[in-house]
Amino acid sequence: MEPIRPDPGAAEPDDADLNVLLTRVGRGDQAAFEAVYDRVAPPVYGLIRRVLRDAAQSEEVSQETLLEVWRTAARFDPARGSAVTWVMTIAHRRAVDRVRSETAAAQRENRVAAEAVPAAPDEVAETVEASLEAERVRRCLDGLTDLQRESITLAYYSGYSYPQVASALGVALGTIKTRIRDGLKRLRDCLGVAW
Amino acid sequence: MRIPRLPLRRAIHDLAGAYALDALDGAELARFERHLATCRTCPDEVRGFTATAAALGLAAAATPPPSLKGRVLADVAVLAGARAVDAEIAALLTEPDARVASAATAAGGSATVVASSRAAAVVFTSVGLPELPPASVYELWFIGTGGARPAGLVPAASGAGAATPPLRAPGLEPGDAVGVTVEPAGGSAAPTTTPIVVLALR
C-alpha cells in the first residue's frame, strides 16, 4: 500500500511544531492553517465519524470544527495543554453536541425512549486504524476493568452522557462516575500522557 | 459537631472524568464548572484527563474525504479576506459567542454561516453553489417560529465553483435557523421555493 499522506497516528512526535503552527494561525496565517489542516484533519474526521457514524454529518461537523479552529486559534494557550488536545477537544465537543441535538429531535418526534439512546458501539479494535498510536491506546484500554473500559468508550466514542452510560450498562449512576474517573487515571498513567 | 463534608466533595470530584469526556449535561455541568473554578486539584486532573481523551481521539484517525480540504480552505480564505476588509464582519467573527454551522446544499456546494447572538447577526458564505440565470438570485432567510424573514441576497461568486463574498445579515433572533432559497431577481418578501439548505444554529 502506498501511503498518500503520513500515517495519522504518527502525528504525535511533532506536537511542538503544531503548537507553533496554531499560534501562527491565531495571527491569521492561512499557510500555517493549511499545514495544521493536513496534520489534524484525519484525527478530527476519524473521531467525529466514530461518534456520529453518518458520513455526510461527519463531514459537516468536521468542517465546522476546522473553521472553529481557524476562528478561535488566537485563544489557544500552549501553557494550558497541547495544540492537538485543544483541537480534539473542539472536535469531540461538536460531535457530542450533534448527537445530543439529534437525540432531542428524536424525542420531540415522540419516538420511544429506548430508540432515543444512540446506537450501540462496535468494538474499538474494529475501526481503530492500524497505527502505533491506536495499538498503544488499545493495549491500555485492555488494561482497564470491563466496566471502566465500557463506560469510557460509550461516553467518548459513542457520545453518551454518563446517565445514558449508566442505563445502557444497568449500573448505578454513582458507580459509573467513579469508574470513568478511575479508568481515566489508569489510562492516563498507562499512556504516559504529558499535560 | 461539624457536619462531615467529605462525601459531597468526593462526589463532585468524581465528575472530573465525565466532564473530560463531555458526558455531563445541564445543571450538573454547570455545578461542576462552578466547582472547577475554585478547586485547587481539579484543573490539573481535568487537564490530564482531557489529554487522555485526545489520545483516544487520535487513535480513531481516518482519512477524510478529499473534498473536505478544498471547502474548508475556501471558507477560511473568505473569512480571512473579510476580516481584513470589512470591520463589521471582522467584529462579528471575533464575538466570543460566534458559532460556525456548515452543510452541503441540495443544489450542490456547501453553505457556511457564522452567527453571533450578541451581535444579533450572521455572516454567510458558500462554496460551489451552481451559477444561476440572471433572472434568479440566492436569498438568505432567518427562519424562526413565526416563519421566514428576509436576510439579504447572496452576492454572486466570481466564477463557477468559487466562494461567494461574505454577506453580513443583521436581525438574528434567538432560536432562528438560517436558510437559502432561489428567488426571482431582486428577491422576495417570503420564500417562494423550497430551501436548498437550512443551517441550525446550536
Describe the structure.
The complex is a heterodimer of chains A (195) and B (202). Chain A has 195 residues and is an all-alpha fold. Chain A folds into two domains: 1-116, RNA polymerase sigma factor, region 2, helix turn helix motif (Rna Polymerase Sigma Factor, Chain: A, Orthogonal Bundle); 120-195, Winged helix-like DNA-binding domain superfamily/Winged helix DNA-binding domain (Arc Repressor Mutant, subunit A), CATH 1.10.10.10. Chain A has ten helices and no strands. The longest helix of chain A is centred in the middle third of the chain and has 26 residues, at 83-108. With 202 residues, chain B is an alpha+beta fold. Chain B has two domains: 6-58, no CATH class; 67-200, no CATH class. Chain B is built from six helices and eight strands; from the N terminus they run H-H-H-H-H-H-E-E-E-E-E-E-E-E. In chain B, strands 1-2-3-6 form a four-stranded antiparallel beta sheet, with helices on one face. In chain B, strands 5-4-7-8 form a four-stranded antiparallel beta sheet, with no helix packed on it. In chain B, helix 5 packs across helix 6 (87-93). Chain B is elongated and about 65 Å long. The mean pLDDT of chain B is 88.
